[in-house]
Amino acid sequence: MSTAREITVVVVSILIALSLDAWWSARARRGLLVEQLQVVIEEMVASRDAIGTSIRAHETRARMARDIEHLLESADSTGMVEVSDTLVGGLLPQTGMDVSTAALTAFLESGGLVLVPGSDVRRSLREWSTEIAEALEEATFLRDSPAADLAAHLRANYDVSRAEQNGRRWLLGRAGLAEPPSPDEYGTVVLQDEPRLKNYLAARESYELAMVRTLIPLHLESSEVLAALARLR
After folding, report:
1. Residue 160: which domain range?
2. How confident is the model over 98-109, as a mean pLDDT?
3. What's the pLDDT at 217?
């Protein structure tokens, strides 16, 4: 009888130890996933802000292209018109959207979705990396389209070296990465009212607006997902 009790005590002790070990492991894993989720939130905040900045930049460049088109329509009898560096320069540099999904990918691979309630939020997290990749692919495709290659046309046909330098500094300045050029550093570029240039400007405006339409839903989705994730903390 004593032996049976001893065996029972040993078995119960082992089961308790295993239960505690399993509980501790689960607790530790959950803690790790929570930490990973915090990194995902920080990454998505950065992505949302980058997308918002990109939307504003595309809207600005669309207006620039349209403004130059309007200026060309006011060209004198020679067909020439002076255009400010601030317009031409801002359209020359090509800038991309700096977003990352590395933290989210690691979170999904670790099984972190078990922490996230709500099928809509889980689906958004599963599809987010693909949606970002598709947006970047579309941006590259549209940007590299020969019809939208305004910068190459301007470089080949006009003296835009100073405008390009000022435009790059202006864009970096807007992003807080460099000192923007002062107003007295800008000059003008003499452009000719020609159908080919107008076609490039129209194509560039169309590209910029297409990217705005692509990015706005992503910005809204990221804001909604972040609001849902914030409630989990």
Report:
1. 2-230
2. 86
3. 93
